[in-house]
User: Fold this.
Amino acid sequence: MKKIAEGRASSDLAGGCGLSVPWPAVPTTDRHPRRRPKSRLLHALLAAGFALAGLPPIVMASAAEEQTTDSTLLVLAAASLTDVLPRVADAWVRSGRTAPTFSFDATSRLANQALANPSADVFVAADLDWMQWLEMHGRVVRGAPALVASNELVVVVPLKGPVPQSPPDLRAAGRLALAGEHVPAARYARAALEAAGVWAALEPQVVRAGSVRGVLEWVARGSVPAGVVYRTDALASSSVRVAFVLDPATHPPIGYWAAPLATSERGNMAEAFTAFLASPEAQAAFAEAGFGPPRPQADTGIRPSPVQPPSIWSAVRLSLLVALLATVLGFVPAVGLGWLLARREFPGKAVLSTVVMAPLVMPPVVTGFLLLSAFGANTAFGGALAAMGLSVSFTLVGAALAAFVVGMPLYVISIRGAFEAVDAYYEELSWTLGSPPRRTFFRVSLPLALPGIAAGAVLAFARALGEFGATIVLAGNIEGSTRTIALAVYTLLESPAGQETVWTLVAASVAISMLALLGFEYFSRQQKRRLEDRHVR
Amino acid sequence: MSVNGAFSLSLDVEISLSVRTMRIQLDTSHSSIAIVGPSGAGKSTILRVLAGVERRARGTVRFAGQTWQDTASGTWVQPWLRGVGWVPQEVLLFPHLGVRENLGYAGAGELEIREIAALLQITPLLDRRPRRLSGGERQRVALGRALLAKPKILLLDEPFSALDRSLRAELSEVVRAWTEVRGVPLVLVSHDAEDARVLAEERFTMTDGELKPQ
Assistant:
C-alpha cells in the first residue's frame, strides 16, 4: 500500500498533468511488448555482465524467460479512479492473477493515447462519449464497453471560507476551478451549469486544471474558493468540504465504462479484467470508495454545448508576451547574479548558485508547486501581491513568473560565463586609470560581456517560450491569460478535433524556438569576437 | 639625474602564492629604477603591488611620503586613487574601444591625445580598432594611455618588447624625456639590460623572488 501512496503524492503534485502512476512500482513502458528487441539486448548485456562476474549463465537465462512471458495488463484509467482501482486490483490478485499496471490520467488524454499508441489492454473511461469515440476508431472491441460504476458531481470549497448553496451562489464565490474543457468531469459540470442558467456569467471566472485531481489540489490549498469534482474525490481529501451536489438531472449520466482494447495482445485476460470490474469483489471496493452502482441511469438528454478550440493567435501572442516579460524582468537580476557569481567570493556562494540553478534540473511541475506554495493567494506573500493587483494564481503575471523562474538558470549561466570570459586584467587596468569599480563595470565589464548577456537573454526567452509544467500548476490553463503555445497544444491534444490546429501551433513553436537558438548562436560568436586577440604575445 | 628630491619609494611585502611565499624589500630615493631578471622571478608582481591590484600582498608600501598600504594598521589606498601609470606586460587595450578612446580612457582631451600620438608615432592609428594593430603598435597605445592618465609614478613592464631595435631606442629616449620634464618617477621591469641602462639610475636584479642592487 505504501507504493500507492507514493504514486498518489506525485500525481497530486503534478496537478494531474499527465503523470502516469505505475502500480505496482513498475514503469509502464517496460511492459510494452514491442520493446522486446531492446529488452533482449538488455538481457544479453546483463548475461554478459553476469558471465564476466563469474555467475553461472543458467541463472540469467531462466530470469530472462520469466520476463518475456509477460502477463501484466496495462490499464488506462480515468484520473478519478486513482484510489479505487488499486484496491480492485488487490482483489484481482487474490483471485490468482498478476497485478496490472495502471496509467491514470484525464479520460480525454488517455483516449488519445490509446488511439496513437496501441500498447494498452484495457480502457476505463469516465464517460461514454470518449469510449464511443474510441470504439468509432476501431480501438475498442465492438459492443464490449460495460458500465462498471457511477458517480456524482459536487462543488467543493476549502475548509475555511464561505460555502455556496447552489449554482447561482458560485458567481459571488469568485474563481471556479474545473478540469480541462474536454475532460468528462468538466463537460458534465458545464452541462449542469448551463442547465442552471449560470454558465454565461460564470465562464469568465473559470480556471482550468489538467484533471479533477488538479482541481482538488487548488481548492485544498485555498488557491481557488470553489471547484467541481467527483463526489469520490471529495471523499478522498480531508482538506476540502462538499458545498452542494450538482443535480444529476441537469447533466448527462456519469458512468465509468470499461472495455478491452482491440489492439491488446492479451485479449482474453483484458476481457477477464473488464468482466472482473463488475464482480461482487470489485463492486465492494467501488462502493467502499463512494462510487455508485453500475445501474444504467436514465439519459437526461442534456449535452454541454460545443467547446471553442483554443485560439492560435492568442496562444502565440501570449507566449511571446510572457517570454518577453520574463526576459525583460529577468535582465537586471540575471546580470547582477551572473556578475556576482563570476567575480566575487563570498560565504554562501555555492548555496546561491544552487538555488538559482535549481529550476534547470528540477521537474518544472515541482518548481510550479513550490511557486504555488510561496506565491499562492493563501500565503502571506501571495496575499500582499494580490492586494497590489499582482495576483499570480491564474493570471498572466503567474505565467510570466513561472517563465521567469524557469528561464533564470540559463540566463544567469550564460551571463556568468560571459563575465568570466572577460579577463580581470581589463578591470584592474581600468581601476588604475582612475575608474572605481562601479564605473569600471559600466565602462568595461558590461560592454565587454554584452554579446554574452544578449545570448543569455535569447536563451532565457527560448526557455520561457517552452515553459509548460510550472505554468499549468501555478497559473492554470486559461484561454487569453495563461494559455501559451505549450498549453494550447496540450489542450488540443485531448480534443478529438484538435489534431490539425495542433500542427499549426507546433510549426509556430518550432519556428520561434529555432529563431531564438540562431540568435543565441549569433550572439555567442559575437562574444568571442569581442574578446578575441587580446594579448600581444 | 634626480629631479625630485622628495621622491622615495619603499616596499616591504610578503606575498603568499600557492607554490611559495615571496618577500620583497625595496628602498630607493632614485627617481628611476629598473628591475631585471629572468622571467618567472616575480618582477611583474612588484608592479602589481605598486598598482594596488595584488590583493595577496601583506606588508607596507610607501611612496613619496604617502602610505599606500600598511597591513598592520589596515591602511589601503585604492588603485583608482594612487595615480599610477601602469603598462602591464600583457598589453591589454580595451577591445571594445578604438585607439582614440583607449588613449582618452582616463579623461584626456583631443589635443593631449594628438600630442602623445605624435610623440609615440601612432597618429595614423587613432581611428583603428585594437584588433587591427600589430604588437608593437599596441604597446605604444598602451604606453600613451598610461602617460595620458597624468600619473604620479610610471610602472612599465617590458614596454618595448615587441619593437625593433631602432624604434626601441627612440621610444626609450621619448619616455626618459617625458618623465624628466614632468618629474615623474619610473619603475621599469625588463629583461633587457640596454633598456635598463638608458632609462634607470638604479638597477636591481631579481632572482627567485629576491631583489638585489646591481
